[in-house]
Amino acid sequence: MGLRESKKQETRQLISDCATRLFIEQGFEQTTITEIAAAARVAKKTVTNYFPRKEDLALDHHEAFTQGLASVVAGREPGEEPLAALRRTFRAALLEHSPVVGFTGPAFARMVADSPTLSARLRELHEQREEALAAALADAALADAAPTDATPTGATSDPAPAIAPRAAAALIAAADRLLFRRIQELTLAGYSNDRIEAALLPEADHLRALLAAALGGAPS
């Protein structure tokens, strides 16, 4: 990363940090862009250039979040089933207490829960996450159906029905959203991260077993 790009990243992070602090102290709806700009010591236009939507000042890693499940499917190990890759990745994130799966801390969780705007935006991000996953599963299904050198001459592989990746993505994303919500609920209830981890490990395994049964061992 060059010096110019590094400086831009630092400015973006500074604005986001100042905004989050003010949102937690004052509430999301009550905080203005002008106040955020003053706290970060930048122009109001600088704030809106980096963050066209006010919600993204708080949920500033939305692109990584919406593409997270899809990236796991696309980058899985050769021969690894998508569901197995998703389970492995979620388990690692749970053990790391990653914000991506819901470990945001009580102050941040309360800020989102108390804001109708942020709660609506989070639901929208979960929907985009599901759409991206459906596209990744469709790509995986096409790759699995593509003829290989071992395919007999004249033989064809029927691709999975178009609805199958969307249905699988809907089920997986619903489970993902449920686990995210559980972590947030336990955070607001005063559980430590270690206690949340201990509670979620068996719940996550149970949900993955239900998903495996529901998806019936389909290739993608």
From TrEMBL:
Alphabetical keyword list: DNA-binding, Transcription, Transcription regulation
Looking at the record, the residues that make up the HTH tetR-type domain are: 9-69
* Name listed for the protein in its UniProt record: TetR/AcrR family transcriptional regulator
**Which positions make up the DNA-binding region?**
32-51
Q: Which PROSITE patterns does the protein's record reference?
A: HTH_TETR_2 (PS50977)
A GO molecular-function annotation = DNA-binding transcription factor activity
Q: What InterPro entries does its record include?
A: Homeodomain-like_sf, HTH-type_TetR-like_transc_reg, HTH_TetR
